[in-house]
Amino acid sequence: MFRKLLHRWESLAPRHQIMVATPVAFVVLFLIHASPLFPLLDWKRALTYAVMECVPVALVLTFATQTELARRAHMAQHEAAPTDADPDTSRSEEDADRT
After folding, report:
1. Cα torsion for 30, 34, 37, 38, to the nearest 10°?
2. Using an 8 Å Cβ cutoff, are 14 and 62 in contact?
3. pLDDT digits (tens), the chain, 99 positions
4. Residue 25: per-residue pLDDT
5. Global pTM?
6. How high is the pLDDT of residue 15?
7. Are 34 and 78 contacting, i.e. CB atoms less than 8 angstroms apart?
8. Are 53 and 13 in contact, with CB atoms under 8 Å apart?
9. Can you spell out the DSSP letters for the chain?
10. φ, ψ of residue 41 in degrees (nearest 5)
11. Cβ-contact 27, 49 below 8 angstroms
12. Cβ atoms 58, 22 nearer than 8 A
């Protein structure tokens, strides 16, 4: 189930990821700030911090997802490409053949 959910998340467009991640980040951050971890914060201040922090958290999450997708695509492209000899050695062999 987790893989299915992860695949659905990664298949969303970045703007949709931001729209989904922002309210989720807001709720999670509010619960963290309102928890016993921050005993001096009242609920108004916890709400304020959650509002201020939810958009950057959603942006970072979306950026990390897109970077991971690009990395996987890059790795898949290199795995599919035939591996030739080192490009530097092949150039020196070509130069030696020309002379």
Report:
1. 110
2. yes
3. 889 999 999 999 999 999 999 999 999 999 999 988 888 888 999 999 999 999 999 999 999 999 999 999 999 988 887 655 555 555 555 555 565
4. 97
5. 0.72
6. 96
7. no
8. no
9. -HHHHHHHHHHS-HHHHHHHHHHHHHHHHHHHHTSTTSTT--HHHHHHHHHHHHHHHHHHHHHHHHHHHHHHHHHHHHHHS---S-HHHHHHHHHHHH-
10. -90, 130
11. no
12. yes
The first and second tokens of residue 9, run together, are: 């998340």
Distance CA 46, CA 38 (A): 9
Dihedral angle, C-alpha 44, 45, 50, 55, nearest 10 °: 110
Smallest CA-to-CA distance from 45 within 37, 56, 33, 54 is with 33
CA 22 – CA 58 distance, rounded (Å):
5
